[in-house]
Amino acid sequence: MRLYLVRHGETEVNQRRVYSGSTDHELNSRGIAQAELLARALSGVQFDRVVTSGLKRTQQTAEYISGINRQQHQQLEGLNEIHFGLWEGRHYQELEQNDSQNYANWCSDWKNYPPPEGESFNQFNLRIHQSFTDWLSEAETTDLENILFVGHQGTLRCILLSLLKMPSEGFWYFTFRHDAYSVIDIHQRHAVIQQLNVQA
């Protein structure tokens, strides 16, 4: 089984560099252009299944790349981006001034301390691990070959942690560009990275 991992195209909040995870933003014009470039780069691949999160930005990106309507995607809300709670849409510089104690606690204990009314990293990582391994168990009973998997920066990093059996600190060792794709081969739960961040 071959996974094509793609981060969704850019949104307006990505451009503003604010915390945004669970808020359901659509692609901006640059995000649409990135998805169109990825569609051309992957036009030679026949996808047997398209998997997205429950959020529109992944579904829009997947539609551009695959040409398959989002109603036919496998949408998994368990693979949504981390929930930043009351920090959704806010910039770190504003938090340093207006929610300084919570922000300092979060920075010093990023794995355990959640944003107010949000998820901690450990809660998020466990959710992604469980959702992805459940999905993988089902997918491995099929004869699927090429799967387009459109997710979020945090989600895709956690999937790699799960596949490569890495500790949480490995989260910071990967990044996923908006305009690139990565290729992972999986055979009997053994994952091999074939390509990482191939720019479209």
* Helical fraction: 25-40%
Mean pLDDT: 96
What's the arrangement of strands in the largest beta sheet?
3-2-4-1-5-6
Radius of gyration: 17 Å
Strand content: 15-25%
Shape: globular
How many extended strands?
6
Number of helices: 7
> What is the end-to-end distance?
22 Å
Sequence of secondary-structure elements: EHHEHEHHHEHEE
Structural description of this entry:
This protein has 200 residues and is of the alpha/beta class. The chain contains seven helices and six strands; from the N terminus they run E-H-H-E-H-E-H-H-H-E-H-E-E. A six-stranded mixed beta sheet has the order 3-2-4-1-5-6, with helices on both faces. It is globular, with a radius of gyration of 17 Å.
Q: Features of this protein?
A:
19% strand, six-stranded mixed β-sheet, 200 residues, 38% helix, single chain, alpha/beta
Topology overview:
Elements: E1 2-7, H1 12-16, H2 29-41, E2 49-53, H3 56-66, E3 74-76, H4 92-98, H5 100-108, H6 121-139, E4 146-151, H7 153-164, E5 180-187, E6 190-199
Parallel strand pairs: 1-4, 2-3, 2-4
Antiparallel strand pairs: 1-5, 5-6
Helix pairs in contact: 2-3, 4-5, 6-7
Q: Nutshell version of this structure?
A:
By secondary structure, the protein is of the alpha/beta class. It has helices at residues 12-16, 29-41, 56-66, 92-98, 100-108, 121-139, 153-164; strands spanning 2-7, 49-53, 74-76, 146-151, 180-187, 190-199. It is globular.
